[in-house]
Design goal:
Shape: globular
CATH superfamily: HUPs
Structural class: alpha/beta
Oligomer: single chain
CATH class: Alpha Beta
Distance between the termini: 55 Å
Largest sheet: 5 strands, parallel
Radius of gyration: 16 Å
Strand content: 15-25%
Number of helices: 6
CATH topology: Rossmann fold
Bound molecules: 4'-phosphopantetheine
Number of domains: 1
């Protein structure tokens, strides 16, 4: 049987419980997921690529059929290079739809062999994103339960370092 590999791309700065829910449910559909972090030198992430890789690996250490990788350039080219034809994305509120629709249509224009598949984020994670979590954590807000506990600790360390710098 031919294995179905899907690429789950994003910045994952940092990984949240919303991302993890998409991974868990994605694995109910696909044989393997490659979680791929976009290496974009124009963005200034809070966590380095190595830190993000290591956090994703730690969060999914007991989950089989996962690979963590990075990519640059066009996503569709990377998908083909990884011998896949599927992009997996999570959709939260309706507000995500326009951006995701635009991206899916552009990816389709770039390569018709690549399909975008969307999973609805679990209602518990509907309002969270890495950005809003970083914002709350930067002001000392309690974000426990929204990210794995070790990620929560790493966020606290980061913002403490920034305060003492
Ligand atoms: O975590 P994000 O911001 O939702 O991830 C966006 C990502 C990385 C999936 C998107 O920016 C992307 O695929 N970039 C790669 C460049 C590309 O292929 N662009 C053309 C399609 S829009």
């Amino acid at each position: 049987m031919c294995k179905k590999i899907a690429i789950y791309p994003g910045f994952f700065d940092p990984i949240t419980n919303g991302h993890l829910s998409i991974v868990t449910r994605g694995l109910e559909i696909f044989d393997k997921l490659i979680i791929s972090i976009l290496n974009n030198p124009k963005k200034a992430p809070l966590f380095s690529i190595d830190e993000r890789i290591s956090m994703i690996k730690q969060a999914l250490q007991d989950t089989p059929n996962i690979e963590v990788d990075t990519f640059g350039g066009l996503l569709v080219d990377y998908v083909i290079q990884k011998k896949s034809n599927i992009i997996l994305r999570g959709i939260r509120a309706l507000s995500d739809f326009e951006y995701e629709f635009q991206m899916a249509l552009m990816n389709r224009k770039l390569n018709r062999d690549v399909q975008s598949v969307f999973l609805m984020t679990d209602y518990k994670w509907f309002y969270i994103s890495s950005t809003i979590i970083k914002e709350a954590a930067s002001f000392g807000g309690d974000i426990s339960g929204l990210v794995p506990e070790f990620v929560n600790e790493k966020l606290k360390e980061k913002f403490l370092q920034a305060k003492n710098a």
